[in-house]
Amino acid sequence: MASQKRMARELAQCTATPPDGMTVALANDSDIHNWHITLDGPAGTAYAGGKFGIILRLPDDYPFKPPVVTFATRIYHPNVTNDNAGSICLGMLKPDAWKPATKLFAVLAAVRQLLEEPQPDDPLETRIADEYRQDRKEFEKNARAYVLRYAKGPVKFDAAPAAGAGGGKESSGASGGASGSS
Amino acid sequence: MPPPNTPEEGVLPVTMSYRRPREPVYSRRYSYRRTSTGPSVSPPPPVRLPTPPPAPSPSVPDAPRPSSATRRCSSKCQCIPKLDYQSLDYEVPVDPALQCPICHTPFHQPVTTRTCGHTFCSECLDRSLETQPVCPIDRQPVNPSRDLFRARVISDQLERLKVKCPNKGCDEVCTRELVVSHFDLHCDHTLVHCPDPFCNLRIPRADAQPSSGCLHKNTPCQYCGADVMIADLESHYDDSCSGHTAKCSHCNAIVVRHHMEKHLAKECLGREIHCKNMEYGCQVLDRRPIVEEHERLGCVFEAIGKLVLQRMEDRARIEDLEGRLRTMDARAQRAENTSTSPSSRPRMGSNSFMPGFAPDANIDAGPRTPAGNPAWRSPEDYMLVQFERLEAKIEDLQKMTWEFDGQQAVRQLNDALRMQEQIHELSNRVTALSLQVRSLAVNAQQQSNAQQRNGSSGSPSTSSSGTGGPGTRAPSHEDGRRYHSNPPPRRNSDGRGQHPPRL
Q1: Contact B304, B281 (CB under 8 A)
Q2: Among candidates A26, A61, A21, A16, which has minimal Cα distance to A38?
Q3: ipTM of this predicted complex?
Q4: Which of B99, B103, B127, B137 to mutate to test the interface with A (most CBs of A within 10 A)?
Q5: CB atoms within 10 A of CB A139
Q6: Using CB atoms within 10 A of its CB, is residue A160 exposed (0-12), middle (13-18) or buried (19+)?
Q7: In this predicted model, what pLDDT tens digit does every residue of A14-67 receive, in sequence order?
Q8: Packing angle of the helix pair A168-181, A126-134 (nearest 10 deg)
Q9: Which domains does chain A show, CATH number per domain?
Q10: Is the pLDDT of residue B39 over 90?
Q11: Cα maximum dimension of chain B
């Protein structure tokens, strides 16, 4: 298969020299399509000290279709749905913006970059985005509370359902309500 | 009926099946030479000859299996796996710049976009353009029918790289250009159709002999009794057979039964073996480590073995030489019989020891002794004859030289005599002339003396010239005429006076 070799190469590259603060492993040794990534919250951000689980699922026709990246650990972030799905809004992963030549290393680096610099102009959670823009202190307080509550201790990857990565916008309203109550 | 574990047609590997529909488009667009995966070139495996159906087939003519006509694959057969370029292993690592950004393997049939100049494998790019008609790197719009051209330099470069045959168990290493034909036509490990036309399975080419028939039948394993397909027996013995290992009776090691013979012959430490020089007389018979040590320290019989080998070699050479000598003898005998007339030189012996020696002598002496070339008795003999001949030649040359010298001397003498005579004649003439000149000079002196005497008597020079001029001149004229007429005409040295001016 054309993609098998590429996936194997990318996995080898990412496990050998992963982006800063990340460790990459397969969810199941026999399935190269599901990656489990552990991300240490970048220092200097509200997420520092937390350990976030990220699930990267490669579609069958990867690299012609973009990989699906979701947070398995709940996170308080304008570009990540604040629910169990943990969908990410990342420009390069949108189907009409995906470039088959993009390497997964770049995708993982972009996810990490998203934690360092949230993109409130292209949000999944409009409420959190507004808070990020208008009341940074409140945002950081909430984010830290989320880290303390969800992102401490061993990372669990089974929290997020594998499916449901696509519809981030629809679920944003409901999840926004959920986050407000918590 | 097919065995219970016969896979269905759809289970067969579909490695590149999704590419099939696009290939004609590709070949039309870039007109690549399709050597590998092109449906038109892939020949049917050679083993699938139209063999007559095996004996049981007439008994089940209406069986619901696929008939041989429908199963017989056409040139568009997809059930035989094609060479997968992306799975090739290269002998040396390939520069990342020569790898497709989509599949991350070295380019296969690379094409470059006209708009942005990015290069991809044609299959990867086609697949990507199907999803979105943009460049996979910078998302510039790409028109597949217009904006692409072959990157021939790159492909030529890559086709020359050495790759390993992708088949397991095959050690073939060749250039990427050739690996396709190796894989499709020659490799013993490539899967081809079972020689049985009623069998849908595939089998390595090495095992697909029409004579061996279908190997996809079950047979009970000789160790564990399980039903195993004949074609899978090897791997069954190696891996899954429950009774596949046994204890070696000599060294108690656990060995795969299937490899027991190899173990006993090459590995077993407990079994007694002979020294390798047994055939030369070494009596050592012991366990492998001891025998190996014995051989390492130097078995005495090893030297004897070498001698024996040497002797055999020498004997072969002697026999060879003897044979050649016999043929030579026979030839000499023939030559002797055919030579009839005596040669120019007395024969030294009729039973020549070295017949036909020195073919050069035959060539040289050929014209002189046309009746028959003497077969020289020995090299010395031949050299002697040559020497004599050369001596005679030298004598001839000496004589010629003497004759020539004599002639030369006579000719020189004649020439010298003639010259002497001429010189004498010339000297005579010169003396005569000098006498005449002297007498003339005396005359002139006398005349001038007479004139001086007249001048000193007192007459001016003009009157004397007017009166005595003709008188004095007349004799000079007459002298001049006499000089000019009587003696042989003389030539002036400058040649001007040769023709006196005409009046």
Answers
A1: yes
A2: A21
A3: 0.72
A4: B103
A5: 22
A6: buried
A7: 888 888 888 888 888 888 888 899 988 888 888 888 888 999 999 888 888 899
A8: 60
A9: 2-154 (3.10.110.10)
A10: no
A11: 180
CA geometry: angle B280, B283, B285, nearest 5 deg? 125
Does the structure show a pLDDT above 50 at B159?
Answer: yes
The Cβ of residue B325 has, within 10 Å, a number of other Cβ atoms equal to 10
Q: Which residues pair with B174 in a beta bridge?
A: B163
**Residue position matching structure tokens 């004996």:** B55
Q: Which residue of A has its CA nearest to B86?
A: A2
Cβ-Cβ pairs closer than 8 A, A with B, add up to 47
Chain A contact for B97 (CB, 8 A cutoff): no
Active-site residue among A14, A39, A89, A128?
Answer: A89
Q: Which of B133, B26, B116, B104 is nearest to A62 (CA)?
A: B104
Tell me the C-alpha to C-alpha distance, in Å, between residue B234 and each of B229, B256, B257, B415. 10, 11, 11, 115
Predicted confidence at residue B488, as pLDDT, reads 55
- Token readout for B96 is 């990342």
- Is residue B13's pLDDT more than 80? no
Cβ-in-10-Å burial (0-12, 13-18, 19+) of B273 comes to middle
A151 close to A38: Cβ distance less than 8 angstroms: no
Among A4, A5, A100, whose Cβ lies nearest the Cβ of B128? A100
Note whether B116 and B95 are within 8 A (CB).
no
Q: Please indicate whether, in this complex, the C-beta atoms of A6 and B103 are within 8 angstroms of each other.
A: yes
CA distance A78 to A91: 14
